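sorry for the late reply, my laptop died twice this morning and i had to redo everyting from scratch. anyway the thing you sent over, i finally got around to it. pasting the sequence first so we're on the same page, its 246 residues, then the predicted structure underneath. double check i copied it right bc i was rushing
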Amino acid sequence: MANQGRRPAKRAGRGSPVRRNKAAPAERYPPQKPKKKTGSVVFDAPQPEPEAPRTFRLGAVPGATPGRWIDAWKQRMPHVPLDLVPVDPATQRSALDEVDAALVRLPLADDSLHIIPLYDEVPVVVAAADSHLMAAEELTAADLEGEVLIGLTDDVLGPLDLPGTTAARFAPLATEDAIATAASGTGIVIVPMSLARLHHRKDADHRVLAGGPVSTVALAWPRERTTPDVETFVGIVRGRTANSSR
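ok and here's the structure:
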């Protein structure tokens, strides 16, 4: 027979499995997504040392006006209280050993100090409010001829060259007492304008003395005690902001 010995061809049945391609390893085992990093607290990190409690001591001679600088200090250094210490001009050098810095009156010659001149004060003539001298807006040395000049125990202007004036026959007085005496009509007092305003009275008035000696107010402190607090106050006085470089 012609077909004898032939092997019948296989036919794929309905139940026969269909061979599929094997998935690549990356598809069968996809890489895991990286875990999100969470913030951690490091408990052993070094902590900054707190600043030691302290007070900035600022000296000031009578008549000095540090108010605006003190206000700026309070805003910039609220954690460091400022203590304003009155300073007698006669002992201002020794007072600098007890404060961080001070507003003083020049001259003050000492190589151990840093001294920054700040402003000049004009001199004024203080007399009774009804004195004929108060009729002028400004006075000269010639206008004072014949006047009695009251001496001061706390004088800051030094010797005055006022020909024609007469020295009072009584002992020199402190500025406040001298102005009170001048208000009575006994004589005149010559002081920086700030002191006339400091000891202002209703029965006394003052006029600028043109060409008279000025009084320079300065900031001073010992060179060996130039601390960060002193440098901060110097920056405030010079108008530097908190972000300005020194």
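The helical segments are 25-28, 67-76, 92-95, 175-183, 193-198, 228-237.
thats about all i looked at so far, will dig more tmrw
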